[in-house]
Amino acid sequence: GGQRGEKGALPNEQISPADGLLALIQTMAEVNVEKFYERLNKIHAHFVRHSESTWHGAECLSIDKGASDEDNQYLKSTIIHHYLFGYELPDTVVLLTKDGQCVILAAKKKCAFLKPAVDQVPSKKGSVKSLKLLTKCKEDNNEANIDTMVGIIQGGNAENAEPLKVGVLLKEYKTNTSHKEGSNIAAWEGRIRNAGDIEVVDVAGGISVVMAVKDQEELDMLKKSSVLSNKVLKHGFVPKMEDIIDNSTAVTHEKLATDVDAIIEDPSKINLNVPTENVETCYFPIIQSGGTYDFRISATSNTDNVKFDVITVALGARYQLYCSNIVRTFLVDAPKAVTKTYDVLIGMHEACMKSMVPGKPLKHVYASAIKFLRDEGREDLVSCLPKNLGSSVGLDFRDGNLLLNSKNTVQIKAGMVFNLACSFGGLKLSEKDKAGLNDNSAIKSLSEFGLMIADTVVVKSSDGGADLLTKMGKHATDISYTINEDHDDGDDDDESEESDDGDRELAKKIAKEEETRPTGERRSNRLAANAVSAEVNEGAAERERKQIELMARKNEERLRELARLSKKKGGDDKTKKAEELETYKSTKNLPDNVLPNQVKVDMARQCVILPICGNPVPFHISTIKNVVLPDPDTAAYLRINFYTAGMAVGKDCPQNTLKLVQKYAPYATFIREMTFRSLDSQSLTTAFRQISQLRKSARQQELQVQEEANLVKQDKLVRTKNERVPRLADLTMRPVFAGRKTQGNLEAHTNGLRFISTRGEMVDIMYANIKHAVFQPCKSEIMVLVHFHLKNPIMVGKKKQQDIQFFTEVV
Length: 811
Hints:
The protein is of the alpha+beta class and 811 residues long. The chain contains 20 helices and 31 strands.
């Protein structure tokens, strides 16, 4: 009851007997005095500093709250009451003057609720100096109270020729003429309207600016609200939508929206432990598809059935009255033109987030969106933009004074929270764009579509930009579904995205051939874990067919992802192309001493010859992940594990093997492991030792190649002849060769230095490659040394080194 009271309004004087208990509980609530003065001082300080600009020259503020309106939860006066008091106080006037006097006219119970704050006015902190409560008086129809308030705002200067400007919430002020006779609002606003020396000005914008910057408590509430919206969409809407698609169920937008709304009101439906009295919907969810899209917040979910084409869903949750919003677009059987436009929308959304820099005006966000479209060569989409890209969000879902449009000059500040809503409306889809689509695809009948994504974001204070609070994925791989294969898959990707040697086309062909038993059912391309488990009881044949389909879809998505990554990196395909492994050109080149059932290691060819059905089959050592020799019992066993697709390859996997696995993963069959048994343990033990040694040697060779890959070729040392060579004897070099102390002589030749160790190892350092040379004398040290920092690394033993020292100890 106490928690519900925090969301509701304190009761009026007249209550029904049925509400007696609730009214009693509500009247037990207490105002948070510290929070009240902190936020009141925040409003007052901004009002005093910017009264001539943001507050339109007002001399005082009058926040008038009429009767509760269940149909409009976002009245500015209601929002302010929740911000200051934590409750809505109907029929209450809050008066705030420039000199720091706060006067509140309210009914008896509301004054009792506010009484603890009267004696706790901060004396040193804040600009509000006093709080005065005026209790509603029915005997004189509040005449004395109204006279007192007028006297306070006039400040004893009733003869001033200029009209006194009183700041009000003008939109509500104009509609407050129908308030009940005898109410506090009717008496106060009636006096203002009839006074010839009082002029009202709108201060809603000033209050919006103050409330836009959230304190830590508000940010915590908004984060929780955003998490709730995110989880309702991810675990509530998405599973329902996928079930509708997979089962071809006819469900109306309105019915699906009703189900989602019920989840927001009761999060336990998706296993969230959130008290229902703390949550509610910001608005009835909006679900659209079938070519009819309206991205205004006033749009509704109609009674048409959900079409499996371009599906948009918008929902917002309130947690402890703080609002959040999330919108996603889901693409089903989308052609290339749609996905390309969607990728542009994602890029524009990210550009808008980066543009939210403290100090910039709100219109900078809209300008950044237009700039991004023009830079991407999609100026045709500028006309498809909405009038605004969202607004500030908090206790108010949509603050009309803080819209992200092309004209708003209000400055962005750290701690502001926005509903960033990017959309393209009225997009055309030509017959050419749909040419390759399957005839069963619903998107085939679309001639016009829209795209929208929206997130709740908070402006950062450090490096600018904004952070996401609603973090559900929105990239193409997160929201795309395929339920009908295209007629011509060759047009799915750009030519530049085709994989080497036509592998992607071959993968698609084989995947289609594996669909041996078409059923006509829609198949979701979503990589969900329950895609096969739903058919557990259908028998082995049906399970196998499902697994083949799932593998085909996974392979296809993986190929597309790799192609996109390759295109983004812009690398040279020739340098990234996998090198095919060749151990022997033909069976004639196999060693002559290979026996039919023998595991043999060919160290020269770097391969292991394994018997399969009596036939010797060579495997390159780079394909072997590890080899295990368990403790023998009556017989010895040798288990060899190979690198395969669909498993973690580990950091020791050769780069070329990794590329080969990725290349052949879509359609090749891999051997994961092979186990050999022998009564002769000596032969398998010898094979185990040789394989381990060969793997170690091959690994060292690859590491050395990697080390030397980026080395800059050095000039050849020109040795000094026909004259005495300067030489320093008995020096120690660091780093060392092969983990041992390296001693020798350092010689100076024509174009470089040469160090020759006592074991005959040599290191050449060219003068042109020395960037810094540092000499350390033996003052207060036991050694004298010279240190060379090189421009380009050189090989010392098997490792690259850029710093080399030579030293000797001094007695």
